[in-house]
Design brief:
189 residues, globular, 5-stranded parallel beta sheet, alpha/beta, single chain, 7-stranded mixed beta sheet, UDP N-Acetylglucosamine Acyltransferase, domain 1
């Protein structure tokens, strides 16, 4: 396996690999253009994001400044919005459902490192995918950690640190995040 295949498989990989470095540099060049493009130039911003992401819906808007590692490992559904200063480290796949909103300064991090100091200083890292369901709202300055899956209709409170997965129809918050309340979803016929 090459380093990219290892990265996407969740195996230890070397991020200094030439191909991975080139991919990150290409992504950063696209992000430089995106972040320098006027917020009012919605069409250009949308075109850049759609070429950057692996998959997306028609309605997609992200405020500047936006940062990610590769872009192509991010998939968002229809009607996606992210506010200022969102960071998505997408060494593994990040899947975000439809009708999702992300508040300012949210971090979504698939990248992680060994705990053992000798292994960590080697530079080797690994990544775990993140999945966020439909109709979720991630509050300002929240952090979603590697390997987390959130169900549909989840609200993550501002400042929450999400270290484990949660099901549908919940408000979660705190550090580490825990269930604050269940959301009663009304059915419409």
């Amino acid at each position: 396996m090459n380093e990219r295949e290892k990265m996407l498989a969740g195996l230890p990989y070397d991020p200094r690999d030439k191909t991975l470095s080139q991919m990150r540099n290409q992504c950063r060049e696209s992000l430089d253009i995106l972040n320098a493009t006027s917020q009012s130039d919605v069409k250009t911003r949308s075109t850049i994001l759609k070429s950057l992401f692996g998959k997306n819906g028609k309605r997609l808007y992200i405020e500047s400044s936006f940062k990610c590692d590769y872009g192509r490992n991010i998939e968002v559904g229809e009607n996606f919005y992210a506010n200022f200063n969102v960071v998505i480290l997408d060494a593994a796949k990040v899947t975000i459902g439809k009708d999702c909103m992300i508040a300012p300064q949210v971090g979504i991090y698939t990248a992680t490192h060994p705990i053992c100091p000798e292994q960590r200083t080697s530079g080797i890292e690994y990544a775990k995918p993140i999945t966020i369901g439909d109709n979720c709202w991630i509050g300002g300055m929240a952090v979603i950690n590697p390997g987390v899956t959130l169900g549909d209709n989840v609200v993550v409170a501002s400042g929450a640190v999400v270290t484990k997965s949660f099901g549908d129809n919940l408000v979660i918050g705190g550090n580490p995040a825990k269930v604050i309340k269940t959301i009663e979803v009304s059915s419409t016929s």
